[in-house]
Write a structure and sequence with these properties.
mainly alpha, two-stranded antiparallel sheet, two-stranded antiparallel ribbon, 8 strands, about 55% helix, about 10% strand, elongated
Length: about 240
Amino acid sequence: MDDDTIDKFTSQSVYDHDGSEKTPLYNKNNNEKALLKLIVAFCMVFCVGLLFILLIHIHYGSNQLVPHGNVASDNDQCSQYGIDVLKMGGNAVDAAITTALCNSVTLLHLSGLGGNGVMVVYDHRTGIGNTIDFRATHSSNNIIGVPGFIAGLFYANVKYGILPWKTLVEPSINLAKTGITVTESLLEAINQNTSKLVEDENLKHWLSIVSNSSLGQIVKAPNGLIKTLTLISLHGPIGK
């Protein structure tokens, strides 16, 4: 292309619909602006679509938007067992059951298998909450109460849980075999109620060991508790 042709091309005018004169450089800038607007519009549509999908997932999807949540309880080890259950794919009900059973080992003088409880289960997808009342049921004379702790947790697992019942009980069995930490609260409870305790010789022997232990010492849980938890893991509240 010779110089005359180049000069003719670069000096050629382009006219807009209103008759105003435009240069080729002006058209190039306009094309870039149009492309930029198209990119921005695409990004906006993509973000809106992504937000819509996220909202749908929150409302209809899994109960958990992260691999696992967190658990708080009276004992660090029990809380960790609950977190482990969430990591295994269990839901909040499974974690609560595992943690409660663990507390019945670490705090057996405050939260034993012969206790009671109430559990509130809320489904964020439906906005509906349900209450499981497993407080003690009393006989006609209103003196003897039948503990509902295990029956209530078992019912919660069947109705709302994901993981098998045995999986939720096993951490407590392992902890009971490994040993629990002697706390000031446990020693105080034993010393204050020694005269009221049952005549079971094995239990008396265990209580004697604990009462003569120092704070922070690890003591294996009573054999009766380990056996009971094992039966519960296999047969639920029936225990046999």
